[in-house]
Design brief:
alpha+beta; 5-stranded parallel sheet; binds adenosine monophosphate; binds glycine
């Protein structure tokens, strides 16, 4: 099979690394890819926003299958255009990608099909939203409706904070994404991420993970795209997984199909495990970054036939096997991230991979044959261990061997699970 992978982050490096191990693979291309992905794929310079150019390239190289990593091309309808051109594609249609592209869309789906989530209302102007906040009281959550690079959510502990967040949205802090606002009930509990494939009819549960959104140790400081993750998430017991499938995923699949937007791709469900059980915080319609890196470390099965079955409506014929070990990834970021940071700082050394540990590239480039950091989140140091405690020790031992002066990382990734394992 000839495969084209779209994307350039740590998630795509992990996907490329796994796909490259498939005996079914004849050739792997990545657009635009990164220097880590270049170890497994031929990099191509394609403007991913130019769907006709992507299709032309796929035809020229007789690509059998396209795997789309990030959300932006999905929300822009790249999967629809590729499929219309007769090319099998992993990733939901533009209509189905609204599950991530519009928080209001997802909340309305939950309301229609009785999917547990916080009570909410949608608003197109500030005053009615503020009246609702005053009526409900704090804590309460204010969300820009559209894609805001993970920054459009305010968990307001006071009414004043919520009112200010509403003004921010309607004053254009998140551009078009904030033209509509969702105000929803604060959910109290422990968060977990759940990953599940669907071909529009059948579901295949993958695995669970926990993320670390804040930049600083002890979950302090501003939000980021994620500073580290581990899998599995201990709070997601077999019972919780079963309930999530039955109460959240299955009604989503049948509801989307009934509404004329069948979902094909990966559900990345952000869950709050409350006293009542799993409740949906949000859906993403792609693998998490860096959650994908820990999932790929733990996946024993060949990834390629699983993704292909998802794209071609034959998911009932495949299964996914997982290592019992835990996997943990530590993000090395440029000093200053998530604020301003220097670009093109040199990375002098990245330690070799082993079966049990690997450094994925997330924001790197080659400049005059030297590896440099180009992004905020730059490397994902990922390792396996019998326990999260052991995976954590392996990951930090490897991270400490990376030579990159301008890099930093959190030192406590996995702390919740480590504390549980000690108890
Ligand atoms: P989101 O971008 O929707 O994932 O929200 C970002 C973060 O805000 C989530 O990971 C949660 O930590 C928090 N959050 C979002 N919605 C709620 C809610 N209804 N109750 C409590 N926390 C929330
Ligand atoms: N790590 C969170 C995300 O990929 O959205």
């Amino acid at each position: 099979m000839k495969v084209l992978l779209i994307g350039s982050g740590g998630r795509e490096h992990a996907l490329a690394w796994k796909i490259a191990q498939s005996p079914l693979l004849d050739a792997l291309y990545a657009a635009p890819g990164n220097p880590g992905i270049a170890d497994h794929a031929t990099l191509v310079e394609l403007n991913v926003e130019d769907h006709a150019a992507v299709i032309a390239f796929a035809k020229e190289k007789a690509i059998d299958f396209v795997v789309i990593g990030p959300e932006a091309p999905l929300v822009a309808g790249l999967a629809d255009d590729l499929r219309a051109a007769g090319i099998a594609t992993f990733g939901p249609s533009k209509a189905a990608a609204q599950l991530e592209g519009s928080k209001g869309f997802t909340k309305d789906l939950c309301a229609r099909y009785d999917i547990p989530t916080g009570a909410y209302q949608r608003f197109k102007s500030a005053e009615p939203a503020k009246d609702y906040v005053r009526a409900q009281g704090a804590p309460i959550v204010v969300k820009a409706d559209g894609l805001a690079a993970g920054k459009g959510v305010t968990v307001a502990m006071t009414e004043a904070e919520a009112l200010a967040a509403i003004d921010d949205c309607f004053d254009g802090a998140f551009g078009a994404a904030g033209a509509e606002v969702v105000v929803e009930a604060f959910l109290d509990g422990e968060e977990a991420s759940f990953f599940c494939l669907s071909d529009g009819k059948t579901a295949l549960a993958l695995a669970t993970a926990q993320d670390h959104k804040r930049v600083g140790d002890g979950d302090t400081g501003p939000n980021t795209g994620g500073m580290g993750a581990y899998s599995p998430a201990p709070v997601m017991t077999a019972t919780m997984v079963e309930r999530t499938m039955k109460e959240i995923i299955e009604p989503t699949i049948s509801g989307m199909a009934k509404d004329g937007n069948p979902f094909s791709g990966v559900f990345f469900a952000g869950l709050m495990i409350t006293a009542k059980g799993p409740e949906l915080i949000e859906y993403n319609v792609r693998f998490g970054d860096p959650e994908c890196q820990v999932l790929m470390m733990r996946l024993k099965s060949d990834l390629l036939p699983i993704l292909y079955a998802t794209a071609t409506g034959t998911l009932d014929r495949v299964d996914a096997e997982w290592r019992d070990e835990a996997a943990l990834t530590v993000v090395l970021a440029s000093k200053g991230y998530p604020g301003a940071y220097d670009k093109n700082t040199p990375i002098a050394h990245i330690p070799e991979a082993s079966e049990e540990a690997k450094v994925f590239h997330a924001g790197t480039a080659l400049k005059d044959d030297r590896l440099v950091a180009t992004g905020g989140r730059v490397l994902n140091v990922t390792a396996l261990g019998k326990t999260v405690t052991e995976a954590q020790a392996h990951a930090y031992a490897l991270a400490d061997r990376v030579e990159w002066e301008n890099g930093f990382c959190r030192r406590d990734i996995g702390w919740q699970a480590v504390a549980r394992e000690k108890a």
